[in-house]
Amino acid sequence: MSADLFESMKQSVIDGDEERSAELAQQALAQGIDPLVAINAGFVLGINHVGEQFGVGEMFLPDLMLAAEAMKAAVAVLEPEMKRRGTQREVLGRVVLGTVKGDIHEIGKNLVAMMLSASGFEVHDLGVDVPFQKFAEKAREVKADIVGVSALLTTTMTGQKTVIEVLDDMGLRPQVKVIVGGAPVTRSWAQEIGADGYSEDAMGAVALAKKLVGK
Ligand code: B12
Asked: Does domain 2-85 sit in CATH 1.10.1240.10?
């Protein structure tokens, strides 16, 4: 019976069916299933599948976004019970993320945030048009492992460099790692500005973040 339920959970995420995922999470709670087990034996398998299919070009951006939303809906239902039981999901690391000052492109950044949080990172999303200083202040406040800076304009890319400089000035480096991304950003740019990593997409950002926190 549970095997069917777990399979349905996986499928609901693959289908990007937010309502169905939330409903299945409710069912798991009603059946007394440990919420962490529901996540790891059910929903996570769905998001992993979508990530793999996306990687090989079998699924596309909208599928990835819907899957991440479905995953989030399930986790939102399960979270209170996890807290109550004290079985918190292992937090892989803390990430401060935002689109840099002068830039209001948020779709890619939101996707990176969703995938990181669906994968077990605690994400502090500062939004768009974020002042350089704010990345560093938030990183210090939440003891971030990673700061992620998104930029979609050639004119705002230089802001990624400034964020690294501010982190340096505040003595937060090299403990706090910096990852950068956005359509005009390249690996060589990331190297040039002394970032710790670059990824061209959200799945890559998750792999990169895991590597940087040693997971
Ligand atoms: C949608 C869009 C907009 C929307 C944004 C809506 C929103 N709420 O986000 C609106 C209409 C507001 C907009 C405005 C502008 N835009 Co615009 N916009 C785009 C467009 C078409 C798509 C961007 C997008 O969402 N892509 C989909 C997401 C999923 O991809 P992504 O953002 O690249 O993110 C992925 C990766 O880059 C990576 N990633 C992203 N961030 C991060 C961060 C980290 C840490 C990591 C690891 C990875 C990572 O992972 C993401 C997921 O896979 C692009 C064209 C393009 N092909 O990029 C132009 C584009 C970026 N825009 C452009 C321009 C010029 C502008 C404007 C200046 C236009 C104008 N004259 O007003 C304004 C600027 C406003 C501002 N100050 O920011 C140019 C930039 C040119 C350049 N090289 O500088 C582009 C390239 C269009 C073009 N070909 O001319 N835009």
From this structure: yes
Quote the ligand 1 centre to 12 CA distance (angstroms): 30
Tokens at 146, concatenated: 């990673």
- Which position has the token pair 């549970």? 2
Do the beta carbons of residue 130 and residue 100 sit within 8 Å?
yes
Ligand 1 in contact with 184 (CB < 6 A)?
yes
From residue 6, give the alpha-carbon distance in Å to each of 43, 45, 153: 7, 9, 42
Confidence of residue 131 (pLDDT cuts 50, 70, 90): very high
- Helices 18-30 and 61-85: crossing angle, nearest 10°? 20
The CATH class, in words, for 94-212 is: alpha beta
Q: What's the pLDDT tens digit per position in 152-209?
A: 999 999 999 999 999 999 999 999 999 999 999 999 999 999 999 999 988 889 999 9
* Binding site membership of 180 for ligand 1 (Cβ less than 6 Å): yes
pLDDT band at 129 (very low <50, low <70, confident <90, very high): very high
Say if residues 75 and 68 touch (Cβ distance below 8 Å): no
123 beta partners? 95
